[in-house]
Design a protein that fits this description.
ssDNA-bd; mainly beta; single chain; 6 strands; five-stranded mixed β-barrel; Single-stranded DNA-binding protein; NA-bd_OB-fold; 1 helix
Length: about 160
């Protein structure tokens, strides 16, 4: 899509990620609190300013990883497409800012993190019994490659 507004927001996870397994694939959402900080020169100390809240949406594998990795209070960096929505609810105008996340990670300037790749699912064994060994696809020495492949002997059934 052209002319999308891609932003990078640095803040804290404000709500526990909510995971949903939808027909279109996994989806997760959480609220992100982004607070500005500035140096108050009169007091000579850092002061918190206004806090903006974003609803962060994650899809597919990112949704699964967000649910397994993030907790309330975690410092994170979110890159995504900004979508500002205006709505009228009970006679009042509401404005919400959503981020359709492309990438999410812990903010390593404020702590450490241990990266783990998601595990691959184990192949399911069939209820029909033990798996058959893979055939030996090597051709016999001196063969032209057009002969039928030799097979390993089948295991004997135990009764």
């Amino acid at each position: 899509m052209m002319n999308e507004t891609i932003i990078c927001a640095v803040g804290n996870v404000a709500t526990k990620p909510v995971f949903r397994d939808l027909a279109s694939g996994p989806s997760a959402r959480f609220r992100l609190a982004v607070t500005t900080r500035y140096l108050d020169r009169e007091k000579n100390e850092w002061t918190d300013g206004h806090t903006n809240f974003f609803t962060v949406w994650a899809r597919r594998q990112l949704a699964t990883n967000v649910t397994a990795s993030l907790d309330v209070g975690d410092p994170v960096i979110v890159q995504g497409r900004l979508k500002v929505r205006e709505d009228v609810r009970e006679g009042q105008n509401w404005v919400s800012a959503d981020l359709d996340a492309v990438a999410i990670g812990h903010d390593l300037t404020r702590g450490t993190s241990a990266f783990r790749r998601p595990g691959r699912p184990e192949p399911e064994t069939s209820a029909a019994g033990p798996q058959q060994p893979e055939p030996n696809w090597e051709t016999s020495p001196g063969g032209s490659g057009t002969e039928s492949a030799q097979r390993e002997p089948e295991p004997a059934a135990v009764t």
